[in-house]
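Q: what sequence does this backbone want?
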């Protein structure tokens, strides 16, 4: 059974609509799909409606940008129902904060000589979504009409530690995000631990509360070795292991449904979410 538990749409920084993503997943024989937009669950209900006719299960989700000891940590939350008012209020607040930070990123780029206007970025964003570095990068690509992979990689470095537009979002503590997901009836999973700035941090993150770990992930160098390593970490220190494509659109090197995600983690996740 094909599974993808990490997918983005235009409701955050994905390039495809919810409808396009669900139909693409169906055409790729995906049976279990999680919509995990950044700080937004706006696409979940539409995905669920579409999936009813496609023999596909939608697991409602979200991806949160959090901070731990001054470092960015991405956290996935999976839910049975995302309509919790406290969850939605906090997501709305974070979207506003992240958009404000994006303004500062664009200003930093302008100060360093890049011809980019805020209106260029706004064209890339759904009206309800937070503006993120993904939107800014796409605005740069479109403004300069560049399809050169090397140039795209160079632009991405602007937003990494040490880059001219690197401004980490540190206003949502990892611990608070984990608690929020649990209190909203969900289950937290640390996203792509192989991308942590300090890899050994994963053990401290997993020690906070019993949570999950995203293991089956493609945007890593030494992908096979790291998947094997994090599978062992999850077996010892996490409640379950998940995985997904982190799909943002057809331009990515990992396509929707491409990762081989074991069904065992989905079974465990369903059991946890269905507990009353």
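A:
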């Amino acid at each position: 059974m094909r599974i993808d538990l990490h997918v983005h749409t235009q409701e955050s920084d994905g390039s495809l609509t919810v409808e396009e993503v669900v139909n693409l997943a169906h055409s790729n024989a995906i049976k279990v799909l999680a919509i995990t937009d950044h700080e937004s669950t706006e696409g979940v209900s539409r995905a669920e409606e579409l999936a009813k006719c496609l023999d596909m299960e939608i697991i409602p989700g979200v991806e949160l940008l959090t901070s731990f000891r001054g470092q960015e940590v991405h956290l996935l939350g999976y839910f049975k129902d995302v309509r919790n008012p406290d969850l939605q209020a906090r997501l709305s607040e974070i979207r506003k904060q992240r958009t404000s930070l994006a303004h500062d990123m664009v200003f930093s780029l302008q100060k360093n000589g890049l011809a980019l206007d805020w209106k260029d970025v706004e064209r890339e964003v759904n009206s309800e979504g937070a503006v993120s570095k993904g939107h800014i990068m796409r605005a740069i690509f479109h403004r300069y009409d560049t399809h050169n992979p090397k140039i795209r990689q160079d632009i991405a470095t602007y937003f990494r530690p040490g880059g001219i537009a690197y401004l980490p979002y540190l206003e949502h503590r990892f611990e608070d995000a984990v608690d929020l997901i649990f209190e909203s009836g969900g289950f937290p999973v640390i996203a792509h631990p192989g991308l942590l700035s300090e890899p050994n941090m994963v053990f401290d993150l997993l020690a906070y509360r019993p949570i999950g770990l995203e293991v089956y992930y493609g945007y890593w160098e030494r992908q096979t070795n790291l998947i094997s390593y994090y599978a062992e970490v999850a077996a010892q220190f996490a409640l379950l292991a998940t995985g997904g494509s982190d799909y943002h659109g057809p331009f990515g090197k990992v396509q929707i449904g491409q990762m081989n995600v074991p069904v065992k983690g989905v079974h465990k996740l369903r059991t946890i979410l269905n507990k009353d």
